[in-house]
Amino acid sequence: MTERLYYSHPMLASCDAAVVSCEKAGEGFAVVLDRTIIFPEGGGQPADHGFIGDARIIDAQEKDGLVYHICDREVPAGAGVTVTLDIPRRLDHTQQHTGEHILSGLAFKLFGAHNVGFHMAEDYCTIDLDAFLDREKLSRLEREANAAVRAALPVTEEHMDHEALDRISIRKKADIRSDDIRVVFIDGGNIDSCTCCGTHCANTGEVGYIRIGDSQKYKSGVRLWFSCGGRAVNEAIALTDSITELARSYSTSREELPMAVRKQSDELAALKRELKARTRALCGSIAEGCAERNAVIVREGFGADDVKMLTECVVGAGAELCLAFGEKDGRLYYRALRSERSKAPMNELIKAVNGLVCGKGGGSPAFAQGSAEGRLAPETLETLKSFVQKWAAGQ
């Protein structure tokens, strides 16, 4: 068994140890020590990093009571070594994990929501709750969590067997085979209590700050993205900088930014409606002036939606078939539409167009569409006009 000093001496930054074994493991070496301050991956928390002498610890895993330190070089078995901890990484993980306890405990106490999933990655953390929390409830949860942080409440642990565990009521009991069960309490259980193998702050004040960054409905509940401590502070600073820059671009304050964005959004929606109406009127005029039974039309500045509208107007005005092209932002958009009188397969026509303009597209016999890079060359347009007339006549 590896003696785990990260439980008995959680603030220990280095320790002396003896190398029990060292074996090749993939591209690295799995080193077992008689004692360690390195936390192995578990309970949703990534492994600590650090050094065994000059060997860098890049991962740590637990199996059958032993902690395997995955190192970038060999460490001789039987050697006496000094183990040093990557303290910033441990602090970050400890803050995230303690913050998760605070959020999970309060979500249960305030709203009866159970934590059914926790994941801590290098740059984000998530909690899955089995009950949906709306924005108002999430705001309350975040405020209450940070009130607990400011109160600097004690975070303690107790070790007990299954019989003792069965006599107490806690938020979450993991399925643990060992008879040495570690239970973590925040404020004696007033904020949270559950079985846990991770590392934690000595009190809630060390978490610093808890921020719920985002949420989305997940299954029958909700998934929360959150951050604590230094992560949360860095995210808040980055968000403030982004909002400040955006507010300046609108010549307004951060507080007035939502109103300015809504105003611009309303104005943009009105302009889009006006542009669509004018485009429809233009397509109607083009259709009225189109005498060809099988029309081939090119319009500069038309995108995919505009080309769709143009084919519908031309066919609606009496054409049996319309092949329309739009040239916009260096790209060519095209669509073929037939009337109910025509039996010509538009998907076959688009295949031919794809070949001529080096484009991609497809569709059904009734209509088809595609796009390509560049513009439609004049000689290609003349080829298409001639082809469409002959091809449609032969259908």
CATH topology assignment of the largest domain:
Threonyl-tRNA Synthetase, Chain A, domain 2
Order of helices and strands: EHEEEEEEEHEEHEHEEEEHHEHEEHEEH
Structural class: alpha+beta
How many individual helices? 9
Rg, nearest Å: 33 Å
- If you average the pLDDT, what whole number results? 94
What gross morphology would you assign?
elongated
The CATH architecture designation of the largest domain is 2-Layer Sandwich
How does this model look, in words?
The chain has nine helices and 20 strands. The protein is α+β, with helices and mostly antiparallel strands and 395 residues long. It has three domains: 83 residues, Elongation Factor Tu (Ef-tu), domain 3 (Beta Barrel), CATH 2.40.30.130; 157 residues, Threonyl-tRNA Synthetase, Chain A, domain 2 (2-Layer Sandwich); 116 residues, Diaminopimelate Epimerase, Chain A, domain 1 (Roll). Strands 2-3-7-6-5-8 form a six-stranded antiparallel β-barrel. A hairpin with a 5-residue loop joins strand 12 and strand 13. The longest helix has 32 residues. The N and C termini lie far apart (83 Å). The model has no long low-confidence stretch (mean pLDDT 94).
